[in-house]
Structures are given as structure tokens and as C-alpha cells.
Amino acid sequence: MSLSNEDEGRGAMSRIWEVLAMIGLLGFCEAVRGGDGPPAPPAPTPMAILQETSPPTLSPTESPSTPELEACAPTPPDALGPFYRPGAPVRSKVGEGFRLEGVVRSSQGCRPLPGARIEFWLAGPDGRYADAYRATVFADEQGAYAFESHFPPSYGGRPPHIHIRVTAEGHRVLVTQYYPQPGQTRGQFDLVLVPEESSP
Fold it and tell me: Which domain holds residue 140?
């Protein structure tokens, strides 16, 4: 049985393509597909992708960043008044009926300030200032303090108040006042000082 010319031509073309594929004429195949440019880069491997997305390693001299230390709001200052006298006796009680306590802290990091010097003075029951109503207290190892007195009277149109002056190493002097409410027998008043190097 003889093959037609068409069948012979088709068989010849098939053999040609088989030979081309066997000898790997990739350039010829690229030309046939119209690819004149350079070959496409290989697809990234899973390891390459992992290396690109991995976090950077720290050198021995680097350390991870840490959040800033917590800050406490400084205690608002108040008037010193005309009746301050330095050198009040070291004692924690000048009367009975009212107790004021708290912690002396730094505004930087809220850390306690052990050994802080706290001076108190207030008017006596008769509304007059006297040495009998002055005291100096030192904060303990946790920065805590306690002061006991009579309930401060009001005078000259001023509400009841206790004057306070606080000094601690490396911090600015704090002068403030505490205002108890009528009928109050105990008060909580933390004293927060500002470090000397802080901006005003």
C-alpha cells in the first residue's frame, strides 16, 4: 500500500520535530515562539522566600528595643506661704484626729524615693501657726511616709490645709499643700518629684 504525497509530507515533518526536540535546539524553539529576549529568571525556591521574610539578626552589640519606663504625673506645686520655718523636729505626730500617708516617688519611672525629707506645718486648733505643729518625716525604704495631726482648721477664708515641702537627692524641691474635706480622718497623698535634669 503506497502513501500519498500528503501523508509522506506529514511524516517527514513529524520526524524533523522529533530530531529537533532530541538535540535540544532550545534557541530555535524560542525563536519560533517569538522569544528574542534573555531567558526568564528561575522561580524563587521556598528557601529563598523564607530567607527574604526572616527577621534580621542582631549583632552581639545590639539589643532589642524596650518600651519606655512608665511615668508618673508630678504633684502640682502650691504656695509656700509666710509661715514656713526650716529645721522642724523629726517626728511623725503633732496631734490626733487626722492621718496623712502616701509614697514619695520620682516622676521618671514612678520609682519610690527612700529617705526623702518631708516637712509638714499647719495651723493649730486656734488657727495660729506654732512650732508645736511642725514636723519632719523621712520616707522609709519603700518611699512611704505617714503623718498624724489634728484636723487643720480654716482661717482667713482659706479652706483646711496642710503645708508640705519635700526634698530628695537628684530631684527638684516640691512645695505643695493637702486639702482634707470636712469630716475626713485619713488622707492618701503620693508626692511625685521631678528629676533635676528634666525640662521645666
Answer: 98-193
Whole-model pTM: value is 0.66
* Confidence class for position 196, pLDDT limits 50, 70, 90: very high
30 and 114 belong to one structural domain: no
Q: With contact defined as beta carbons under 8 Å apart, do 142 and 153 qualify?
A: no
Please count the other Cβ atoms lying within 10 Å of the Cβ belonging to residue 5.
7
> C-alpha grid cell for residue 22?
532530541
Whether 162 contacts 46, CB under 8 Å:
no
d(CA 106, CA 112): 6
Handedness of CA 129, 135, 136, 137 (dihedral sign): negative
Q: 107 with 71: CB under 8 angstroms?
A: yes
Asked whether 24 and 17 are in contact (CB, 8 A), the reply is no
**What's the CATH number where 151 sits?**
2.60.130.10
- Residue 145 covered by a domain: yes
Q: In this structure, what is the dihedral angle of CA atoms 136, 111, 188, 166, given to the nearest 10 degrees?
A: 30
Closest CA to 178 of 98, 91, 86, 71: 98
